[in-house]
Design a protein that fits this description.
By secondary structure, the chain is of the alpha+beta class. It has six helices and ten strands; from the N terminus they run αββββαααβββαβββα. It is about 20% helix and about 25% strand. The radius of gyration is 19 Å and the shape is globular.
Length: about 300
């Protein structure tokens, strides 16, 4: 990688493939998971802040993918405590927007270049404990200590909290802009045990047996001075939060949403990406990963 020039998506994905085990037909991160069709019922509480169609009053359909953060399908890699929840809100036949979240509230690096420098320090044969030790002693990635504190023991996908990490701007009819961060909060009814041999199967059983699995979408509102361009810094807990709606899982998707690319920069009128450099880089990186794994989508599934 030439440090004199901006990082390219190709260089980023090349670095991931060199540092860790990847599989040609799978995503280069969050390689395996399980997907569902769902519905999202907005509360209307966000109407004063945004014209975004899915945050008004009308229920919209959605596709939800839960994932392990590993780049491999190796079952042992699923012990990695970072999990993902990606949601596509289908507004109309040819319009959608995505929220792509993980179960930690901040990211490990301020810039794409810093993240790839971190990846390049790993070796494909290094163990998880070796990687954690390297991170603890890496002064460029001080956010890692905070991330470790946030990671809790997990039993299933449906009892975790998921965070957008990045800030977005909402825009209303008066063209007023409000910076927000999103969070999926599981409803208490999600958290009960079933006899299963994997996190995927536990969630599938609950949905197929008719047990409601729901998440509440919260929006944290920024105040003056809160950084919108640094995903390593959490906003203070006392910032106002509003409940934007409820997501309900309906049925397992036969295609597992494998052709979908949950690009977090795909927005609609009423929502804009912030100036976060990591967020803005992800679109090209997702596209490069999709090209390499053969996920050929039309406009519907970018």
């Amino acid at each position: 990688m030439n440090n004199q020039n901006p990082l390219t998506a190709k260089e980023a994905i090349d670095s991931i493939e060199s540092a860790v085990h990847t599989e040609s037909t799978l995503r280069r991160a969050h390689a395996t998971g399980v997907a569902f069709d769902a519905t999202f019922q907005p509360t209307g509480a966000a109407v004063p802040l945004t014209t975004a169609a899915h945050l008004q009053q009308t229920e919209v359909s959605a596709v939800v993918r839960f994932s392990h953060s590993s780049t491999s399908s190796n079952p042992n890699e699923r012990l990695n405590p970072v999990k993902g929840m990606a949601v596509r809100f289908q507004i109309a036949d040819d319009t959608f927007t995505n929220l792509t979240m993980v179960n930690v509230p901040i990211f490990i690096s301020k810039t794409p270049e810093a993240f790839i420098r971190l990846i390049q320090t790993f070796d494909s044969s290094s163990t998880m404990s070796q990687r954690i030790d390297a991170l603890i002693h890496d002064t460029e990635h001080k956010a890692f200590a905070s991330i470790l504190k946030e990671l809790k023991p997990f039993r299933n996908f449906e009892s975790l909290h998921y965070y957008s990490i990045h800030a977005y701007f909402l825009k209303n009819d008066d063209l007023e802009r409000q910076a927000v961060r999103f969070k999926w909060q599981p409803l208490p009814q999600n958290d009960f045990d079933t006899a299963s041999n994997s996190m995927e199967n536990e969630l599938i059983q609950k949905v197929e047996q008719g047990h409601p699995v729901r998440f509440r979408l919260l929006m944290q509102l920024a105040e003056q001075g809160d950084a919108t361009n640094d995903p390593t810094i959490a906003w203070p807990d006392d910032r106002k939060k509003i409940e934007a709606g409820i997501l309900t899982l309906n049925s397992l998707r036969a295609d597992n949403a494998e052709s979908f690319v949950f690009d977090p920069t795909v927005t609609i009128e009423g929502i804009e990406c912030s100036d976060d450099p990591v967020l803005l880089f992800r679109s090209a990186a997702y596209a490069e990963s999709a090209k390499r794994r053969g996920a050929i989508e039309g406009r519907m599934n970018l």
